[in-house]
Amino acid sequence: MNTRKANPSLQSPDRRRFFEVASRYGFTTAVLAATGGYLWSEAEVAHAADDDAARQKAAKYTMLFATEYKADAFHTYPIMQTQFKANLETLSKGAVYVKLHPAGQLGVGGALAQKVQAGTIQGGSVSLSNFSPFTPVVDLINIPFWCGENQRFANLVTSAAWNGEITPKVTVKGYKPMFYFTVDPRTVAVRKGFGKIIKTPDDMKGMKMRVPSSKLLQQFYRLAGANPTVVAWGETPSALKQGVADGLDPAVGALYTFGFIDILEAITLVESVPDAQMFAANYKWFQSLPKSLQTTFDDASAKTQAESFAQILVARKNSMDAMGKVGIKFYTPSAAEKKLWVDACGEQRPEWNDIKKELAGSVDLFNKLKTAANTKGSITVAG
Predict the structure, then answer these.
(1) Is the pLDDT assigned to residue 136 strictly greater than 90?
(2) All structural domains of the chain
(3) In the chain, beta strands by DSSP E
(4) Tell me, what's the pLDDT at 70?
(5) What is the DSSP string of 190-203?
(6) In which region does residue 94 sit, left (phi positive, over 0), alpha (psi from -120 to 50) or beta (all else)?
(7) pLDDT (tens digit per residue) in 47-102
(8) Among 184, 149, 208, CA closest to 257
(9) Alpha-carbon torsion (105, 261, 308, 52), positive or negative
């Protein structure tokens, strides 16, 4: 990710203020100021620095929590790391101090997931596609057109079926799932110069589609007629510029937040697969906490999960507004076009049956999860 061109929004006075605060008072204080809107006076910032240092000193437990996302990313990308810090420290009444390491400071993707699993750090947020090599069952969400819409995904990951059947398969791999959320559905975005908007799978024939390591996403785009091309996340901008890849599929907020604004020509809102994340803790570390703190930890996670889902619509609007201003086109397939996508690639196709059995254990269990995705749960997602 360090190879990416800076997002234009990051050159604002607020952004400069963030780095000024970070250099003088430390990163955690800058995060708190970012959450407050960068409007603090010098005296208020100094007080926050003292207050955070005091909280760290007074806490009985420290949680090193890492992400690959900037601290202020929640404006355009609904990852609520600063909110989680505030929620856990407040609800634990200071017993737990969360030391944030955002922006890839401690690694990205699979490397970060591995550090959480090994207990090198106590927690982190990584995409489910990057968690899947370590806990393959979560790759189920990358089977297209069964939980791609935000509400269906929220229904699924808050259901008794998911938490009863899938969560134990995650914990046995060394993770404590704190909560799951989605940035928004994955898209089909094409580079400048590609020359057409992707409306149906026919438009993808021969297209070089950048994909992460998920074998399911590779199969999805193969069924759509594209040539899936595995490219490391940090190398993706140069791959698009050089024509090694023609397109990629992150959610709108991810495309904007990570600086693709000057590379893209058009984005199609297919709603095929959730661009999903998991906040996870190291399972052994979590189990070492007193039972009362484990309950508090779960309460803080549930609160942050609700805040994450509530932020999706705002983050999407902010991202789309900014990208629209530089001429990036957005396309929403019609009902008839959406049916063509589902018919060509959807979970009902026999090509997915072996994968359902391998990951879920049986097609029956997958169908149980599908029912959960279609059953309204405890969280309502706007938009």
Answers:
(1) yes
(2) 8-183+276-314 (3.40.190.170), 188-273+321-373 (3.40.190.170)
(3) 61-66, 96-101, 123-127, 175-185, 188-191, 208-211, 227-230, 247-248, 264-268, 274-282, 329-331
(4) 87
(5) EETT--S---SGGG
(6) left
(7) 566 788 889 999 999 999 999 988 888 899 999 999 999 999 999 999 999 999 99
(8) 184
(9) positive
